[in-house]
Amino acid sequence: MDTKSEQHIIQMFQNQKQFFATRETQSLHFRIKQLEHFKKVFTEHTDALCEALFTDLGKNRQEAEYAEIKLVVDELDYCLANLETWAKPIEQPTIKHSSGSEMLSKITFQPYGVTYIVGPFNYPVQLTFSPLVGALMAGNTAIIKPSENTPNVANVIEKIVKEAFQPEYVTVIQGAIEENTLLLSLDFDYIFFTGSPNVGKIVMKAAAEKLIPLTLELGGKSPTIVHKDAHLDKTVERITRGKWMNCGQTCVAPDYIYVHESIKDELILKLKAYLDKKYPDSSLGKIGKIVSRQQLKHLAGYLEAAKDKVVYGGTYDVESRYFEATLMDNVTWDDAVMQQEIFGPILPFLTYTDINVVLDEINARPKPLALYIFSEDSNFAEDVLNRTTSGDAEINSTLIHVGAHFLPFGGVGTSGMGKYHGKYSFETFSHTRSVLELK
């Protein structure tokens, strides 16, 4: 990165510090008007976003509109409808002062200041703009760094931001490691990062040096337990929807299946039949692209290491970055595919007869971002929930919780820290200030 680029980044940061100091962003009227204008500009770029998402990630129009655009618009609508209520001070009960004087107590919400939002490649629109909505409705300014791995989408994001906001309020900085390193050296008031645990550690270390509060949305090997009483047809459909959306590059995708031994063969047969029906000419090129050739080769290595365990799919093309929906059976924790989050369209199967062994295996590993349970026995599902820890969980479904604006979303342990969406985004990007007044 040249000196001119460094100076530009530092100047943008200083401009935002100065603009925040005017307190203009604290006006509710200002926040609402800015978010309304952003929604208008954002929706006007639907075609450009869909085209860029197809080029970078192979997302079809339907998936792009739903998973990337609609979720942002729905978040905007939900937040705009509730912001005035969320922003009101909350009166609290208080004890009587020893002097007999009256005391009043309340909780107020203050913006942090200048925020830094680092977007990921897998859902580069939704996971960049949803945090932005939270930052702005709380009254902050924002510097955004979209992922360099989805360059076409990043360019459209930059165009949208330029049309929607003044740069001293919201701006985009393009770049990779050098730019991110410089940005992390600045005195931001809050950092919001979505990405891998390895980069998350770098971000957290930089924030710790300056005691900057932050949210980390990371990932992990999210387990799916399919019990012997599961409704298999529903299970197959819902696992498919969650696993192969975006070619498996979803932080809360089912990473592997723990299935009861008595129904494993039937479940795999039904999955094969469902995939054949859904993709009669194979899923190669139908479920999206792997983000890079390097990542595709990494995924292919899992198959090369255990060729005899591939029972469906397994075809890929390095040049086009297409990778077929793939099933692996008779997998163990010693296999390469089980050593880290897959983040691709490969679904391994492990079997069990004793759920206690399963829970011991899950609990012995880093806490996942999501946990999925398929069972018609609510007591069984609740027992699994009570004996495990995960960022979030679903029973008889996958991925739906990510789009639920009334639920907090986030990880725990190595899968992340902090929650957002809807009201929880407002709270995440707000400093909760206690105020006591003695009459």
TrEMBL record:
<dbReference type="InterPro" id="IPR029510">
    <property type="entry name" value="Ald_DH_CS_GLU"/>
</dbReference>
<comment type="similarity">
    <text>Belongs to the aldehyde dehydrogenase family.</text>
</comment>
<keyword id="KW-0560">Oxidoreductase</keyword>
<dbReference type="Pfam" id="PF00171">
    <property type="entry name" value="Aldedh"/>
</dbReference>
<dbReference type="InterPro" id="IPR016162">
    <property type="entry name" value="Ald_DH_N"/>
</dbReference>
<protein>
    <recommendedName>
        <fullName>Aldehyde dehydrogenase</fullName>
    </recommendedName>
</protein>
<dbReference type="InterPro" id="IPR015590">
    <property type="entry name" value="Aldehyde_DH_dom"/>
</dbReference>
<feature type="active site">
    <location>
        <position position="217"/>
    </location>
</feature>
<dbReference type="InterPro" id="IPR054920">
    <property type="entry name" value="BenzalDHMdlD"/>
</dbReference>
<dbReference type="InterPro" id="IPR016161">
    <property type="entry name" value="Ald_DH/histidinol_DH"/>
</dbReference>
<dbReference type="InterPro" id="IPR012394">
    <property type="entry name" value="Aldehyde_DH_NAD(P)"/>
</dbReference>
<feature type="domain" description="Aldehyde dehydrogenase">
    <location>
        <begin position="6"/>
        <end position="435"/>
    </location>
</feature>
<dbReference type="InterPro" id="IPR016163">
    <property type="entry name" value="Ald_DH_C"/>
</dbReference>
